[in-house]
Amino acid sequence: MDLIKISNKLDAKLVVDRFKRGDIGVILTDTIYGLSCLADNSSAISMVYKIKNRPKNYSFIILVSDFLMLKKYFLVSKEQEDFLRKSWLDKNSRPTTFILNIKDEFANKFGVKKSNGVAVRLPKNDFLVKIIQSVKSPLISTSCNLSGRKEVSSLREIISLFKFNKYKPDFIVNYNKIRSRRKPSAIMDIRRFPFVKLIRS
Question: The domain at 2-200 falls in which architecture?
């Protein structure tokens, strides 16, 4: 595992290049550290399942950079978009993931079951948004842990977790003076909007 130290926005290119070549990284979202790779890279996604020792019937959160990218991949009504904007564009509100219907042509590409809906979030982390914009593809995101175990929230814990693991991420992003919030995002299912189902508070 390589450690990539981030001190300014110019360092984003180092992370972008690694994702573009198909690598799997540990990167800070706007909540906790997560495992990420390009959402349209099936081989990388398969490796994430191996790293986590997670059954393949569990899908991952998809991170998008803006509403244009969201609507490219997901079915979003005007009412749903207005609702999402109020949550995602408010920097002071809690990061929230929403379950939406993905378009037919991307369900297989991302390896997700359309009938279950797909969790998606626009991060409030500007650096992460810049990464997604630069790779020109959504990223998958999942908690940095082994399946069934609690999330880890520090670099020391992450390095220790994967040190002797057969499968491990290719790189870890080390942020200068930035700490994780140590609390996962809330999750809401809005596929039947205006009915909203709270999945995780």
Answer: Alpha-Beta Complex (3.90)
